[in-house]
Amino acid sequence: TGIRIPGYPTITIEADKKDVQMNLMNPEGNPCYFTFEIVLSDTGETIYKSDMVEPGKAITNVKLQHPLTAGEHNAVIKISTSSLTDGKTMNGANVETVLVAK
């Protein structure tokens, strides 16, 4: 069984706010926990890192390290995975996205 990785072509968030809404999902049926890290492409800065998310669950309330100004910000969502059974690292993924701050 493979690991299903969701795509995030764009994510719209509120500009100038640290507490924003987005849907970072670990699809139902995955054999692993997900940890999400959002990294700005221009600077390499990590603006968010989640706790482990179990399959079928999502993070919707995200607290950024700092607010983003209005506009489009290229970013990478780094998804790290840990086995449900023994906690070992499994295949992860880097998903490119655009954070649209309005």
Q: Your description of this structure?
A:
By secondary structure, the protein is mainly beta. Helices cover 0% and strands 51% of the residues. It contains no helices and 7 strands. It has strands at residues 10-13, 19-25, 32-40, 46-49, 58-63, 71-83, 93-101. The radius of gyration is 14 Å and the shape is elongated.
Strand content: over 45%
Q: Please trace the helix and strand order, writing H or E for each element.
A: EEEEEEE
Low-pLDDT stretches: none
- Number of helices, where a helix is a run of at least 4 consecutive DSSP H or I residues: 0
Strand tally, please? 7
Largest sheet: 5 strands, mixed
- State the secondary-structure class: mainly beta
Which word captures the global form?
elongated
What spatial order of strands do you see in the largest sheet? Answer: 1-7-6-3-4
The averaged pLDDT comes out at 97
Q: Helical proportion?
A: under 10%
- Oligomer state of the chains in this structure: single chain
Rounded to an integer, what's the Rg over CA atoms?
14 Å
Distance between the termini: 39 Å
What would a concise description of this structure say?
The chain has no helices and 7 strands. The chain has about 100 residues and is mostly beta strands. β3 (about 30-40) and β4 form a beta hairpin.
Write the layout of secondary structure elements.
Elements: E1 10-13, E2 19-25, E3 32-40, E4 46-49, E5 58-63, E6 71-83, E7 93-101
